[in-house]
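General statements about sequence and structure are easier to judge against a single worked case. In the encoding step, the backbone of a single protein was reduced to a row of integers, each denoting a local shape. The record that follows shows the chain in one-letter code together with its fold in token form.
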Amino acid sequence: MKLMLACLVLLLPVFGPVSSALAAGANYRCADGTSVRAVFRSGVPMGSVQLRFAGRGRTVSLPQVLSADGGRYADGNMEFWIKGKTARLTRSGAATECKTR
């Protein structure tokens, strides 16, 4: 058991760049006119998404949260919930539907 733990600790730095290499991105256009670039990163135990809003220079990082369907990313102020090629972006309680471009 101690040997396995030691191997895990030694390999952790190796897997850092690998998880970054597994990032995937998509561009979305929302019904309210918002354009957003989403970069999804896998992680342990959950992943995250980095949202970059066009024209605003603003970037938001949201942790992945449990979802029964699709990929859901949220914090207390914002939610980005994807399913297939569509997503729902909710900010300050207002939701808009988005589609990949």
Remarks:
- The first helix runs from residue 2 to 21.
- The chain is about 20% helix and 50% strand.
